[in-house]
Amino acid sequence: MSCSASIAAITLWLAATGEPSGGAVRHLTIGTEATFPPYIIRDDAGALTGFDHQVMSEICTRTGHDCTWQTAPFGELIPGVAEGRFDVVLGGMAITPERRALVDFSIPYTWGGEIEWFIGFPGAPAPEAARIAVEAGTIHESWLRGQGLDFRSYPSEAAALDAVAGGETDLTLGPFAHRMDLAAQIEGRGLEYAWSVDIPDEGTGIAVCKGNTALKAQIDAALRAMEADGTLAALNSRWF
User: Which residues pair with 33 in a beta bridge?
Assistant: First the structure.
């Protein structure tokens, strides 16, 4: 289904049923990265959980949607929702002007830290003189492009770390602060936190196809209700 066809289907569904509480259930396909703690993680059984998984699951319940989850490399999420592969994408996704040009975002529902890290071996060159690995589709990739630095894009954080550990690049840039899940790939390989940088954004949001005002309105209403009744605060306390 194309993005425009998805919008038309949701609009017709809302026109026919009014609200999900009227008894109709619409299916949504949700795209996310396979793991990005604490937003998206896999439990011991391999099932998805985490802050964003629980936020979106609660939204699905409140809006009456039957939701299924699909994982994809982070760089495929924004294009995937723009093309209609996914109805919704999320996973610690920062709202930026560049992304808002491609998709529509919900209201922000949490804010991440703006300090990001370059990681490399001791004695690595400064970012201005380095070859830098970065995960494709991230705000870190956009920042490097805007700064005119020399970078190569990889499909995942793990692949970017492999690149610097294997000598393909001198540094990697990413959201590496407090990432115990990546400790073996960072400290365990002798890499170190070399330089930090501020990369501001507009908060964390849920992306839908550009022009899908009906679905965005439902998500925004659910988020506001979750903020008002304390659900968002409780989930935030649990995962952060």
Answer: none
Under 8 Å between Cβ of 71 and 33: yes
Distance CA 172, CA 124 (A): 11
Instruction: For each of the domains in the chain, give its residue range(s) and CATH number, in order of start.
Output: 3-111+202-239 (3.40.190.10), 115-198 (3.40.190.10)
Residue 219 near residue 115 (C-beta atoms within 8 A)? no
- What are the two backbone dihedrals, phi and then psi, of residue 18, each rounded to the nearest 5 degrees? 80, -80
Per-residue pLDDT of 119-176, as tens digits, reads 999 999 999 999 999 999 999 999 999 999 999 999 999 999 999 999 999 999 999 9
C-alpha 8: how far from chain center: 25
**pLDDT single digits (tens) 78-103:** 999 999 999 999 999 999 999 999 99
Q: What count of other Cβ atoms lies within 10 Å of the Cβ of residue 229?
A: 10
| pLDDT above 50 (res 22) | no
What does the H/E/C string look like for 104-153? EECCCCECCCCEEEEEECCCCCCHHHCCEEEECCCHHHHHHHHHCCCEEE
